[in-house]
Amino acid sequence: MRRSLILLALALSACSTPYQEMGFMGGVAAQQMTADTFRISARGNGYTGRTQVQDYTMLKAAETTKAAGGTHFRIVSAQDATQQGAFVSPGHANTTFYGNTASTTYSPATVTPIIKPGEDTYIRVLTLAPGQTAPPDAVSADEIIQFVGSRVPRA
User: Fold this and answer.
1) Number of domains present in the structure of the chain
2) Cα–chain-centroid distance for residue 71?
3) Residue 13 pLDDT more than 80?
4) Which residue segment(s) compose the domain that 143 sits in?
5) Model pTM score
């Protein structure tokens, strides 16, 4: 039983959105808004957890900061972009005849909720000189890449 649960967890995690450029199955993207401000958008599919999308957002923010020549970033604002939907499987009836007797079994329709986590975050890139103290709300791009980057699945 325990082994089958582990295999099921591995199978489902393999279906989640990997860290990749934005595409049909989700992903993450950065768009420059001003000279030092970027919008980071991350979207997952129905198998992707909210914390995984948050990791994608933070990692993309850190990578974008480094690519822009920065050392730290500030989160200016963040908005939940989660989408909710449902998968409906139809019900059906099955009738079997045994001589002059009919037996009908009915399976009702089922509705499975689908939650696709998403997040839109605006960041401001900061460039600090060596030895300069970072503002209290600044996030180190190098630390995010080191700690978050190691646990993010890649495409």
Assistant:
1) 1
2) 25
3) no
4) 16-84+114-151
5) 0.79
